[in-house]
Design goal:
150 residues, alpha+beta, 2 domains, 3-stranded mixed beta sheet, 3 helices
């Protein structure tokens, strides 16, 4: 059996279609980032900062399901909300901002077969293994994670 690579290179390319639209390519997939009309865009996709926050929700989903599978936990439903405080002075070119997202709330609503001990494992291991949350926290953003069992 071949041992999987532990470190891999990930590449995403972007092509500017306009001042606000970026075509993003990874593997054989294409996505678009755009700004809303009130910021000069055409609303064809998530704004870059929304994609960033969306990646936390997506990572939370993937890693929570991986942890559950590893521990034999059934997940019946999982809803994730990321609510962030965003200092926009940088993106409006008014002044440099060292920490554009000083804090965010990560709300996780889950219906699961997990007993109390397994539920604690889900909570603990998510913060250990989600690479997106690790990068956000290492940058200095405070993540307030709130789990709700349904």
């Amino acid at each position: 059996m071949m041992k999987p690579k532990t470190v891999v290179r990930t590449r995403v390319s972007g092509t500017a279609e306009s001042h606000s639209i970026t075509l993003l390519k990874v593997r054989d997939l294409v996505d678009v980032s755009d700004e809303p009309p009130e910021r000069g865009g055409t609303n064809e996709g998530f704004a870059p900062t929304e994609m960033f926050l969306g990646s936390l929700a997506a990572c939370t989903n993937v890693i929570t399901h991986k942890i559950a599978k590893q521990h034999g936990i059934q997940i019946d439903s999982l809803d994730i909300l990321v609510d962030a405080e965003f200092n926009r002075l940088g993106v409006t070119l008014q002044e440099e901002v060292d920490l554009p997202f000083p804090e965010l709330v990560l709300e996780i609503r889950i219906k699961t077969s997990a007993d109390d001990s397994q539920f604690e494992v889900l909570q603990r291991e998510l913060s250990m293994f989600c690479p997106v949350s690790k990068m956000i926290e290492q940058a200095g953003t405070k993540i307030d994670t709130r789990w709700t069992r349904l």
